[in-house]
Fold this protein.
Amino acid sequence: MTTTQLRSRTSAVPAPGGTTPAAARRKRPGRLREQLSGWGMIAPAAVLLLSFVFLPAILGFGLAFTNARLISPRPVEFVGMDNFARLFADPTFWRSLLNVAYFAVVVVPVQSGLALAMALLINKKFRGVNFFRTVYFLPVVTSMVVVSLLWLFMYRKDGLINELLSTFSFGLIQGADWLNDPATAMPAIIALSIWQAAGFHMIIWLAGLQGISGELYEAAQLDGASRWHQFRYVTWPGLKHTRTLVLVTITIQALGLFDQVSVMTQGGPLDSTTTIIYEAVRSGFKQQETSYASAISLVFFVLVLLVSAVQRYLTREKD
């Protein structure tokens, strides 16, 4: 047997993966092209995340320990924990923290409960169900700024809400100055927020409801279970993962309250509606204290992280 024949037979021996070495070499350029295509598709999103999320976060963390201002002739200096000491001694910060806690404690259960009730109503097949789904979800796709401006006119002393109260009470109820009274400003913002975002969480609840097998309800009906017992022993356990998602998302959104306050009250009256995010924006842009605003943002990040971790721990799966 000649040397040429031995080489041809050796090259024809399959590789361990079941392909010949020649076929494996032909596949390598194809895999390389697939990898390059994948990285090319990821690159735009990665650049945007790096430019507008990760780098600002790192920069904000560093600025929190300096005396940087938005426009200042003085050079930036390291000041250690001075910004945090000032922050924790500021009564406005504690008032904003209390306002956010009050907002979250009310909004989280009420909004999640309302969204679940809406999802249960439209989870049945009847004429016009798609119309009601659209109506319930319509406020979600409307900009919060637009919604806040609309409700701002409704909350005026001579606005729609007071006019309706006066009409249906035959003039006995004149209504309050909702956004200029410290006792009613935050409840007014809470009502707006619940109305605007309930439709979004309704969709999440609806997806969870449609993931529950209909055979479970048929078995419960055969056993003579009432509607309440079906909800308690079939629907609610089946929504275990869904309710965790809903509670976490509502809580994070509640802690990040900003748009409504910025448009409607600017933190007033008497700081009754100011929030942590609003204080950070006001300090950073209006007062030009970027270092102090970065300190507020860093504290807010830690707060959200702790609340999310505690909430995730309380809603974890237990053996």
